[in-house]
Amino acid sequence: MTKHTHVHSHSSGDGSIGSHRACVRLVPIFNHLEEQQMDEIMSVARSASFKKGETIYQAGEESTSLFIVNRGRIRIYRLSENGREQLLRILNPGDFTGELALFRSTTHESYAEAMVDTSVCLIRRDELRTLLQKYPSISIKVLQEFSKRLDETERQTARFATEKVETRLAMFLTEVAEDAEEPIEFKLPMSKKDLASYLGTTPETISRKLGQFEDEGYIRQKSGRRIEIVDLDGLLLV
Amino acid sequence: MTKHTHVHSHSSGDGSIGSHRACVRLVPIFNHLEEQQMDEIMSVARSASFKKGETIYQAGEESTSLFIVNRGRIRIYRLSENGREQLLRILNPGDFTGELALFRSTTHESYAEAMVDTSVCLIRRDELRTLLQKYPSISIKVLQEFSKRLDETERQTARFATEKVETRLAMFLTEVAEDAEEPIEFKLPMSKKDLASYLGTTPETISRKLGQFEDEGYIRQKSGRRIEIVDLDGLLLV
DNA sequence: CGAAATCTTGACCGATCTCAACTTACGTGG
DNA sequence: CCACGTAAGTTGAGATCGGTCAAGATTTCG
Asked: Is the CB of A170 under 7 A from strand C?
């Protein structure tokens, strides 16, 4: 269950200009901008930090800012009508959230929770809009980012609709494996509980299916959430 | 199965300036623009038409244009790795598609097929980009539209992940019912086969669940895909 | 080191898919 | 406008996947 303790830092806080810059520079959508634009963005960016487990925003809450992760990790999840939660994505430094409500409505549809101690940069709704009006190239960057996310989400939806849990898990593993080098071994990017939520299943099933993959010789499970892919091709055929 | 017969009309075709205007005006993202901007958009819009069953674009194909539906209906679907199709959405006049690839990659990720004889307006990739650079307000409109779609898709994903078929169907019915007036009766916006694909289930299950809802007194099925909602509250609790 | 959370494993059951046969609706061409 | 062929929809029986509950093992973190 989520702790609902809000502890925004004071707007200046440990956020020196230097750290704003670092934060803003991290974000793909603000890359490759001219110095002057960058300075302008930085002048409106504020920073805040959250302790592990703290809620950054909740569904129904008013959305006022774009959040850019500077340091740490954020879980974004939805609560379905029946109260079950689904993990939508996990944000790492450079990722951002809160944009949906900025363009569409004023309230959040999802929940954001710091998984570890986390610091973020904030850009207020109206300030962001002004920036977008002024610098069309930023808008286009944001559009690209949205396209990417929309595409990923549509792909994810299609998987839920057409693939069984076993296949979804296999696909997930092969995707994580893409970023690893030979021998293919990686640490699961989240707990199995979260993975279950992300894949729309239960921890029990994740446990069983991973065991099955191991029996079938596709993977090898090691301690500390580490997994070695032994037979990637086999896994792709699941 | 989809017929893959391409028959783009000649770019002028039946597309008089008048029809371009009508088409462009239909689109929410181009509403409320100044006359001059509107003229500029219209000057780069072309038209095309497709016969029922024709493929408008396919996954893997190069994306060159934004398609705006002028008349008719378009199914957008994905084919999953195992060859199963999932209906993503249905476009009606005023809706648009093809934007994903415009901002992200050059190839389509999904399939578009004319459900009935359909005419569309086209705006070429580079021309659209120029427009967005020139008129930031259009970008913001597109961002809003993207936000909306992203939100819908995320909601849909969360449903797949957390709700059973019965609930998804009940939710679908209540959402369609929102647009209807008392007595709540409407025509299903697609075939049950497509509805099954959209909801990630099979036609058999749709048939059975609707029958069950009828037995339980929530709905009444009539001929011609018409459905009357008898007990909306009951349906909401499913 | 110990409490709490995560993870695992087993047994059971229920929702939904599959396959197959059949009925109904629809679009096309005569 | 009707007849026919094809696609859509229905219904039943059986199989299966995956969820639920419960007990224990293991890990994590303060």
From this structure: no
